[in-house]
Design brief:
The protein has 167 residues and is mainly beta. The chain has a single domain (14-155), classed as Pnp Oxidase, Chain A (Roll), CATH 2.30.110.10. It contains three helices and eleven strands. The strands form two sheets. It has a seven-stranded antiparallel beta sheet with strand order 2-1-5-10-11-4-3. The radius of gyration is 15 Å and the shape is globular.
Length: 167
C-alpha cells in the first residue's frame, strides 16, 4: 500500500470535533477531544464513537456506562485543544471550563453548542481505538444554530492547516 496515498485519502474524511465527558466509579471526571463520531440508528437513537483504548474517558465510559458527548461549535478551538490532554477538576471547572452534571451524572461542558447524554450499548475492541456504540438518552442545545445544524459544528479543518488526526 502507498502510505502517503493512504494517509491523504483517509484525511479526506471530514470530522467534527467533540469532547466526551464521563466519570469513573469513584466520581472522578474525565474528558477527551474526539472526532470519530457518527449516528448509526434513528430508532433507537444510536451513535458510534471511536475512542483511544488507553484513555481515561474510555475507561470511565466502559466502567460506568454513562457519558456526555459535548458538541463543540464554530469558534471553540480552545476547548478542543484543552481536552487533548488529561482533564483537571479545579474550582468546579473541568480544565477551566464551567460544567454541571447531566441527569446521567456525566459532566456537561456549559460552553458547548449542544450536549448528548449517552448510555453504553456495546463495544467493538479492535485496533488502538475501540468503537463504542451508545444510545442517546437525552439531548440539550445550548446555542441554537443559525442555518444548518451540521454547519455549526467545529470541524477538524477549523483547528489549523497542520492539525490532522488519522491516516
Amino acid at each position: 500500500m502507498d502510505e502517503a496515498a493512504k494517509k491523504t485519502a483517509l484525511r479526506m474524511i471530514p470530522y467534527g470535533i467533540y469532547v466526551l465527558t464521563a466519570k469513573d466509579a469513584d466520581g472522578k471526571p474525565y474528558a477527551s477531544t474526539i472526532n470519530w463520531v457518527t449516528q448509526t440508528s434513528f430508532s433507537p437513537p444510536l451513535i458510534a464513537i471511536a475512542m483511544k483504548a488507553d484513555s481515561g474517558s474510555y475507561a470511565a465510559l466502559k466502567t460506568t456506562g454513562s457519558a456526555v458527548l459535548n458538541v463543540l461549535g464554530k469558534g471553540q478551538q480552545g476547548a478542543a485543544f484543552t481536552f487533548f490532554k488529561p482533564a483537571e477538576l479545579a474550582d468546579g471547572k473541568l480544565s477551566g471550563e464551567a460544567i454541571h452534571d447531566a441527569a446521567n451524572g456525566a459532566p456537561v461542558i456549559e460552553s458547548a453548542a449542544a450536549a448528548v447524554e449517552c448510555k453504553l450499548v456495546t463495544t467493538v475492541e479492535q485496533g488502538d481505538h475501540h468503537v463504542m456504540i451508545v444510545e442517546v438518552t437525552d439531548a440539550k442545545v445550548m446555542r441554537e444554530p443559525e442555518g444548518r445544524a451540521d454547519e455549526a459544528v467545529l470541524e477538524m479543518k477549523d483547528l489549523g492547516e497542520k492539525v490532522f488526526y488519522g491516516g
